[in-house]
Specification:
This protein is α+β, with helices and mostly antiparallel strands. The chain contains 2 helices and 4 strands. The longest helix is centred in the middle third of the chain and has 29 residues. It starts with a strand and ends in a 16-residue tail after the last helix.
Length: about 90
């Protein structure tokens, strides 16, 4: 099946929509991480608006937590990436 891709502007969203065999797959040209799908174009666009709202809410929460983390060590620890301590290998001479 030939895949068709087209672009839609709906309100504040600029969307790239790809028609597959069963789905309309949507991603945003403006909002990183916005990917969704729907069985109809209308459903796909509605899902994109819902995903945009959810991403905005999640980013707002993350921003608040990060601003708290600057002053609170316990909160800051949530955002640290654990690093493994490496033991240096010493060459064993035979």
């Amino acid at each position: 099946m030939k895949v068709k891709t087209f672009f839609v502007i709906d309100g504040d969203l600029r969307l790239e929509i790809t028609k597959t065999a069963k789905w309309y797959v949507v991603s945003s040209l403006d909002i990183q991480g916005l990917h969704t799908q729907g069985k109809t174009i209308e459903e796909a666009i509605e899902n994109a608006h819902d995903a945009a709202k959810t991403l905005a809410e999640a980013r707002e929460i993350m921003l608040k937590e990060l601003s708290t983390a600057k002053t609170d060590k316990k909160s800051a620890d949530k955002f640290r990436v654990p690093t493994k301590t490496r033991k240096t290998r010493q060459a064993v001479k035979a």
